[in-house]
Design brief:
By secondary structure, the protein is mostly beta strands. It folds into four domains: 2-174, Immunoglobulin-like, CATH 2.60.40; 191-372, no CATH class; 390-409 and 420-551, no CATH class; 560-641, Macroglobulin (MG2) domain (Immunoglobulin-like, Sandwich). The strands form twelve sheets. Strands 31, 32, 33, 34, 35, 36, 37, 38, 39, 40 and 41 form an eleven-stranded mixed sheet that branches. A seven-stranded mixed sheet has the order 8-7-2-1-11-13-12. Strands 5-4-9-10 form a four-stranded antiparallel sheet, with no helix packed on it. A hairpin with a 6-residue loop joins strand 9 and strand 10 (107-112). The chain is elongated.
Length: 643
């Protein structure tokens, strides 16, 4: 643990001291009796500042005055200070000691300042000093005795000092609590790979980087032979490929799909594992060619990645044509959409860019202006930035939480797929449970609608479960603007739930587990053939104010599915339905797990009343659902087989 930064600004009123845990484990400050001792104006006596809490490995701890009038939050906002104290109040001829076992056997671990915390008896009113990583561990010398003139950078011993009132961009950037993104130390940015064996999306944040940069940390196989490779790019031609050699240069801004092995065989390492880099980042804007050749479900996809060794604000991306307003990141083998408005990526982060087939952008530019010291909002090696009006429906299973589908309302959206929508991408693993909204020609993770809606809109939900368990759970969060409401319709059970605020619904959905190996190169999006699979089980219904459920029933009052008779029954029962007009009709029976048991009617049926019989002699006792589907609507009844 060491002192990593000392800060003073706003004419000497805003001050903090920052600590950094350079170890590989959490440090409990309370258990270690840690204190900061501040010596003021060359005094030999000190005032002590007790430190409490836990600092995670490779993490920062900010000690300072957090008052709202003149403290740290007046510059950086709230929630940055870990130890709130006005005792951090350095101003000339001050020094700090970081002490362990302070009240029993004091052990000085680190220090800042000598007889004089700054030049000429003053640390100045607007200075930041930060530790050089290469000088660690501290050798016991205080090592900082200078301040910076306007626009200058001063190196002194183990420290670098910036005047933050100047135009020195580095000084302004480093002067933020908890900032260490490549400027604050000579140690280059690293990526910590956690989780289990499987695919990850990464980028290599180096200028004209090669696979040699990561080959010392993870196993690379199949170079030059994409059939056996565990590393792929997806180029501007819309095809997966593998670099020809470990030494082949990878275009800046390119994303990689990499399979991580959780073992120590053939150059691999057990997880968690770290990636590091030995070369500099690109020194200018990065331009990446986009795929405009091969489309899937009406969109082009390109695998990109943050090319820089700092966090990157997606709002700084620029394109020369149309692009979807969400990128796609991979988290735990499942994809999540992330809005390009306001989201910040970590270094090493790879992602999919989605562009439409009409007016599509051909180039993506990473402007250097997007490099930022703001905290990352995306770390997926997630999240959607929700609009002011939205309905989020996630799917929880034994495998974890799938993003599901988010219905977003915005003034710039329309009915139908537009730039605010996002396609649902195929999971990068074999076992999963996912949900999505069914659009006109694809399954979607973002389903955008206009703010003003004057009719009922029904959005069928897609579900796919390949796990060993049939138990699933919908979780929703609703923040829909005035004038609209939403319901979740379960057509099997014939139930309707108002989607107000937060809620959950557990249900069973039969697994379609397959023993087939994942084929990465068989496509990015979920196949269109799955679009209507199980599509009528759950429906999200959006209703404008003033329209009731009775008004959403189709206009023909003669359309209906009547309760079967007898019920309960063994083994036969009669099912009657009525149509007000001729058309294609489907009458199906499902188990309580959602498995299709039989299809009794599937074809064109005339208007009128019709009767069919179902013989359940080959079925076990239990609850079943009969479901009638026609252009007039969907009706469901519950039946009980009792043997």
């Amino acid at each position: 643990l060491f002192i990593s930064e000392v800060y003073e600004a706003n004419g000497g009123t805003v001050k903090y001291l920052e600590l950094f845990n350079d170890s590989d484990s959490t440090i409990d400050l309370s258990a270690g009796d840690w204190q900061l001792w501040r010596f003021s104006n060359e005094n030999t006596t000190y005032s002590s500042i007790s430190l409490s809490g836990q600092i995670a490995a490779k993490d920062f701890w900010v000690v300072g005055d957090d008052n709202a009038t003149s403290g740290v939050q007046t510059i950086f906002g709230s929630d940055l200070v870990d130890v709130n104290t006005s005792a951090v109040n350095h101003n000339g001829n001050d020094k700090y000691l970081l002490v362990r076992n302070a009240t029993s056997s004091p052990d000085t671990v680190d220090s800042f300042g000598i007889d004089n915390i700054g030049n000429s008896g003053s640390f100045s009113d607007n200075q930041v000093a930060y530790r050089l990583y290469s000088a660690l561990p501290n050798n016991g010398a205080f090592g900082q005795s200078m301040k910076s003139a306007s626009g200058d950078t001063v190196s002194s011993g183990n420290w670098v000092v910036y005047d933050i009132t100047s135009d020195n961009a580095n000084g302004k950037m480093v002067a933020t609590p908890g900032f260490s993104k490549g400027i604050e130390s000579s140690k280059r940015t690293e990526a910590l790979l956690t989780g289990v064996e499987g695919w990850r999306l990464i980028s290599i944040p180096g200028n004209n980087a090669t696979l040699n940069e990561i080959a010392d940390d993870i196993a690379i196989q199949g170079i030059g032979n994409s059939n056996d490779s565990n590393v792929f790019t997806y180029d501007e031609n819309g095809s997966y490929s593998t670099p020809a050699a470990l030494s082949s240069s990878i275009p800046n801004g390119t994303g990689l799909s990499v399979y991580l092995f959780d073992n120590n065989l053939l150059g691999s390492n057990e997880l968690p594992n770290s990636l590091d880099i030995s070369i500099n980042e690109p020194g200018a804007d990065v331009i990446l060619d986009l795929n405009t050749t091969t489309a899937e479900s009406g969109s082009y996809f390109t695998l990109a990645g943050n090319p820089y060794q700092s966090n990157y604000a997606l709002s700084a991306l620029s394109l020369n044509g149309a692009v979807q307003s969400n990128i796609h990141v991979l988290k735990n083998g499942l994809y999540e959409p992330v809005s390009t408005s306001g989201a910040i990526l970590l270094p090493w982060q790879g992602f999919w860019v989605e562009t439409p087939t009409t007016g599509s952008a051909t180039e993506l530019t990473f402007s250097t202006s997007g490099k930022t010291n703001d905290d990352a909002t995306v770390a997926a090696y997630n999240k959607i930035i929700a609009g002011p009006s939205h309905l989020s429906l996630k799917l929880r299973s034994a495998d974890g939480l799938d993003f599901g589908c988010s219905i977003m309302f915005s003034a710039g959206s329309k009915i139908g797929f537009d730039q605010n929508d996002a396609t649902k991408l195929k999971p990068a693993k074999n076992e999963y449970a996912i949900a999505g909204c069914i659009g006109e020609d694809r399954i979607q993770s973002i389903f955008s609608l206009p703010m003003e809606i004057d009719k009922v809109i029904e959005v069928p939900l897609f579900i796919e479960n390949t796990l060993n368990s049939d138990q699933l759970l919908f979780e929703w969060e609703s923040e829909i603007h005035d004038g609209l409401s939403a319901q979740l319709i379960d057509t099997f059970r014939g139930t309707s739930i108002n989607l107000d605020k937060k809620g959950a619904l557990d249900f069973e959905f039969e697994s379609t587990k397959s023993n087939k190996e994942l084929e990465l190169k068989t496509g990015i999006v979920l196949p269109n053939s799955k679009q209507k699979s199980n599509s009528e089980r759950f429906i999200i219904r959006i209703l404008p104010t003033g329209i009731t459920n009775s008004e959403t029933n189709e206009t023909a009052s003669a359309f209906g599915l009547f309760q079967n008779y007898p019920n309960p029954f063994n083994p036969e029962t009669t099912i009657k339905f009525e149509l007000s007009q001729s058309g294609n009709v489907k009458l199906e029976v499902y188990s309580v797990q959602g498995k299709l048991v039989t299809t009794m009617v599937n074809g064109t049926i005339n208007a009128g009343i019709h009767t069919v019989s179902w013989d359940a002699k080959n079925q076990s006792s239990g609850i079943y659902f009969a479901r009638l589907i026609s252009q007039e609507g969907i009706r469901t009844i519950k039946m009980v087989v009792l043997k």
